[in-house]
Design brief:
The protein is mostly beta strands. Helix content is 4%, strand content 48%. Strands 30, 31, 33, 34, 37, 39, 40, 43 and 44 form a 9-stranded mixed β-sheet that branches. A hairpin with a 7-residue loop joins strand 39 and strand 40.
């Protein structure tokens, strides 16, 4: 090899933390090899140290990741990711590298999502803590209970002959004869409260088949899996005599930790992250769909400029509350996402949290309306083309944009006019029109959205019209369209209803890269309590970035419909109407 400075790393399976049949994943690296003569590089897995995060509350890891980035200069860099979140692994390991690199940059990063355990299982003197759990269609109740255990062989229906499984924990072995689905069906038919499946191979065992970007049907009974070493120990105890087990169960996840840790220059001797409460940000999360449903969410960290681990498959209730504790180091950035599969997908801008702070995060609630994605410059003019992405269903969360991928019931229509001349329209949430005049001319961008047969009592239809002027710039240059965005704030309960005298705030703003939001000089708001038949002009007070008013809803009215207009000193404008924006108590 040519003389120079090199870096190498190796991803390897190692023994995990739960006995000889457990699996861990190791990242072994030598980030700075100065090759000026023959050299020997030793990547010694026996010297690897466990990578872990110790947090104040009891948790289980639902997703973990390790990253390495090595740059020698702007033209010579590389990175690698190790994701041990696949079912078989119970731990992460890394080889300490000693002194910091002297040439270029080296970063070792770690990501954890640590959730409240769905289930813990313990005997009188032993905790079986290497569980993977899938809640059943009728999940175990919240709290603690102690149940007797029985063995049911391979778990086939015939194995229950002569057994009294009603109300008990059933323990079976994984095998090639009886599928996991058949084992769960037989346990449920026999009246078991919990099915424990012991792996017959190496590593951890997935408790239930998963789907891609959607939810698999839950098992008929809660299923948990044990590694071979822990499971065989439990089987031996049951064979020796009566073995009651104590369960602590949580029907939904009430708290979690989203953590990142980056080490610059070298991998430390002790790669353990020990954040205290004041090192993290508290985020009070509220899921506010109009009805109970299965939803999912994830908080993606930004690593080397890219949102990582953008999985939508961490299940959450569409109605409910949760407390999140989030890393707030200076280099920690996040993008938050939530979805109801087949209905709506919401996402945030890039966020940073402040250590010791408390903030709130709402998903799926009113007021839903078109909100523009200001992260990627997708409302733009380049040469003779205007391109605009107009997601129609941003929710109550600050800065959220909402799309409706896979939703057959919704109606989205985006239209572009030059003056009064229709240029094109797309039955979608985006539009692209080329062949435009290079002159500065007036344009109107219109987004019309309705729920169709997508059932929801709020924001049943919306219409938003942006007025702006646009001209071609220097060849190949791109300009952000000067579109005014409208954000709303009103305090609603979990069912989407506000008090009849609640305060309503409207905050207009320009997209980053466009005109200054300080150029927005006027806003009007009309409110209807009879779906737009009659209107009341709101009395507004301008404070800070928003205009405030107080509702005066008549008794027995059920909804508030809004019509808002704003313009700036450069002639850009927006008018937005939202039918049944939110409910009234």
């Amino acid at each position: 090899m040519p003389v120079g400075t090199y870096a190498v790393w190796l991803k390897a399976d190692v023994q995990g933390t739960h006995g000889p049949h457990s699996l861990g994943k190791a990242m072994l690296s030598a980030p700075e090899i100065i090759l000026d003569r023959d050299r020997q590089v030793m990547l010694d897995a026996s010297a690897a140290r466990q990578v872990k995060a110790i947090v104040p509350k009891e948790t289980t890891d639902s997703e973990v990741r390790m990253d390495i980035y090595r740059a020698f200069d702007s033209d010579h860099f590389t990175s690698g990711t190790l994701d041990p979140s696949t079912p078989g692994y119970d731990s992460m390991w890394v080889l300490p590298t000693g002194k910091k690199v002297t040439k270029g940059d080296f970063t070792f990063g770690v990501r954890w999502r640590k959730e409240e355990p769905a289930l813990t299982v313990a005997s009188d003197n032993r905790s079986f803590d290497d569980l993977r759990v899938q809640r059943g269609a009728a999940p175990l109740p919240d709290g603690r209970m102690t149940l007797d255990t029985i063995l049911a062989g391979q778990g086939a229906a015939a194995d229950y002959a002569g057994l009294q499984a009603q109300g008990k924990i059933v323990v079976v072995r994984r095998n090639d004869t009886v599928t996991l689905g058949e084992q769960a069906a037989a346990a449920a038919q026999a009246g078991a409260r919990l099915l424990l499946v012991v792996n017959d191979g190496v590593g951890r065992l997935q408790p239930w088949p998963s789907a891609v970007q959607s939810f698999a049907s839950p098992p008929p009974v809660t299923v948990a899996t044990l590694t071979q070493d822990e499971g065989e120990e439990l089987i031996a105890r049951i064979r020796h005599g009566r073995t009651p087990l104590t369960l602590d169960s949580s029907r939904i996840t009430d708290y979690l930790y989203d953590l990142v840790r980056h080490y610059e220059g070298a991998v430390p001797t002790d790669p353990t992250y020990r954040p205290e409460k004041d090192d993290l940000a508290r985020v009070d999360v509220s899921f506010r769909n109009h009805r109970p449903d299965r939803a999912s969410d994830y908080r993606s960290d930004i690593w080397q400029g890219i949102a990582q681990s953008a999985s939508f498959l961490h299940e959450a209730p569409a109605q409910g509350d949760r407390t999140d504790w989030v890393s707030a180091d200076s280099d920690a950035q996040w993008v938050e996402r939530a979805q109801i599969p087949g209905e709506v997908q919401e996402s945030s801008a890039t966020l940073r949290y402040k250590a010791g702070s408390t903030s709130s995060l709402h998903w799926f609630g009113p007021i839903q309306r078109p909100r523009l994605d200001n992260q990627t410059g997708v409302q733009r003019r380049t040469d003779d083309e205007i391109y605009a992405n107009v997601p129609g269903w941003g929710d109550s969360g600050g800065g959220h944009v909402g799309t409706t991928l896979g939703n057959p019931g919704v109606n989205n229509l985006v239209t572009l006019y030059q003056g009064d001349t229709l240029l094109d329209q797309y039955y979608s949430d985006w539009i692209a029109v080329a062949g435009l005049s290079p002159k500065r001319l007036p344009y109107r961008l219109v987004s019309e959205n309705s729920r169709g047969f997508w059932a929801n009592p709020y924001s049943t239809s919306t219409r938003t019209e942006w007025g702006f002027t646009s001209a071609a710039g220097e060849p190949g240059t791109t300009a952000v369209l000067p579109l005014i965005q409208l954000d709303y704030k009103v305090d609603t309960d979990t069912s989407g209803k506000a008090r009849r005298n609640a305060e309503l705030v409207v905050a207009p703003s320009h997209l980053p890269g466009g005109p200054s939001s300080k150029a927005i000089c006027a806003l009007t708001l009309d409110i209807s309590y009879d779906d737009g038949t009659t209107w009341q002009k709101a009395s507004l007070t301008h404070r800070g970035d928003g205009w405030e008013t107080t509702l005066h809803a008549p008794a027995k009215t059920a909804y508030a419909t809004l019509r808002t207009s704003a313009h700036d000193r450069q002639g850009n404008s927006v008018t937005q109407s939202i039918t049944r924006a939110f409910g009234l108590k």
